[in-house]
């Protein structure tokens, strides 16, 4: 591993799927809510365990976020976010029924296959799932919810979205860093444990003598992220790497090979190429910005749609503290949504 910032795959999985809220099997109540209910939506119960499960997943994936003096308040805010998301999902499920929208098993299968590819295979995804507290059943349930939400959003936000040249120019001027690419290097490396300097020096001699770098990386490298690809790290800014590695690739000439020590161990580094810093012009970025603004406008439109569903729904809370947090957060979000709508109109 050489990257300065390495986000655990389990965190990415939780974040990816938590956006939609967990899938809960609500039940219609004929004689009042059960003791396990934390809220009801149009008579459909949301169990407290659904909130607990998602909070526990995030605490497993990001334990440091919930520690310290602010930990309890952060957890309470997250619980409110989760419950609010579950309420939205229940309303979206009701809307999907009205709109005759459903998700097929094949759609879920295809999405899971994409996740497996994204995480480097079924085994890697399974490892991330276990670390994040998911089973395949719970993963598939959440994938189904994601797909249902997206399908409802697509249907209710159809129609032309007008984005003007002035809006595109304003966005470009306000986000110049987004269109700038820093100088980059293309490097490959072979990583050895700190105690294996002698082996690293032996392999370095083989590389300098014309040995096949990729084959040697596959044989010797202990970096699970690049060994299988022959040590190729692709293009990245030097700042993406730990300090010692970054300093080396900044100083090296193309095709130079160097042995460098970092906190991860000894690296045989070969610099394959350099790219100068660059910046997209407004003309080059226009299509991308237009797509971004259209997507933002549709997201805002969908948020307004869900807000309308909420305003017409009968929602009962059985946790007064969470209710206060949710209502306060919704008031803030409503202001932000209105501002965003005015900007894109």
- Overall, the morphology is globular
The amount of beta strand, in percent, is 5-15%
Helical content (DSSP H or I, runs of 4+): 55-70%
Distance between the termini: 46 Å
Rounded mean pLDDT score: 88
**Low-confidence parts, pLDDT < 50 over ≥5 residues?**
4-11
Q: Indicate the CATH topology of the largest domain.
A: Triger factor/SurA peptide-binding fold
- The CATH superfamily of the largest domain bears the name Porin chaperone SurA, peptide-binding domain
Number of helices: 12
Whole-number total of structural domains? 2
The tally of beta strands, per DSSP, is 9
> How do the strands of the widest beta sheet line up side by side?
5-4-7-6
What does it look like?
The two termini are 46 Å apart. The protein is 56% helix and 14% strand. It has two domains: 9-161 and 287-344, Triger factor/SurA peptide-binding fold; 183-276, Roll (Chitinase A, domain 3). The protein has helices spanning 9-18, 48-61, 71-98, 105-118, 122-132, 136-156, 165-174, 197-208, 213-220, 243-251, 282-312, 320-344, and strands spanning 37-41, 44-47, 180-181, 184-192, 232-236, 257-262, 265-275, 278-279, 315-317. It has 345 residues and is α+β, with helices and mostly antiparallel strands. The strands form three sheets. It has a four-stranded antiparallel β-sheet with strand order 5-4-7-6, with helices on both faces. α3 crosses α12.
Q: Any chance you could write out the topology, listing elements then pairs?
A:
Blueprint: H1 9-18, E1 37-41, E2 44-47, H2 48-61, H3 71-98, H4 105-118, H5 122-132, H6 136-156, H7 165-174, E3 180-181, E4 184-192, H8 197-208, H9 213-220, E5 232-236, H10 243-251, E6 257-262, E7 265-275, E8 278-279, H11 282-312, E9 315-317, H12 320-344
Antiparallel strand pairs: 1-2, 1-9, 3-8, 4-5, 4-7, 6-7
Helix pairs in contact: 1-2, 1-5, 2-3, 3-6, 3-12, 4-5, 4-6, 7-11, 11-12
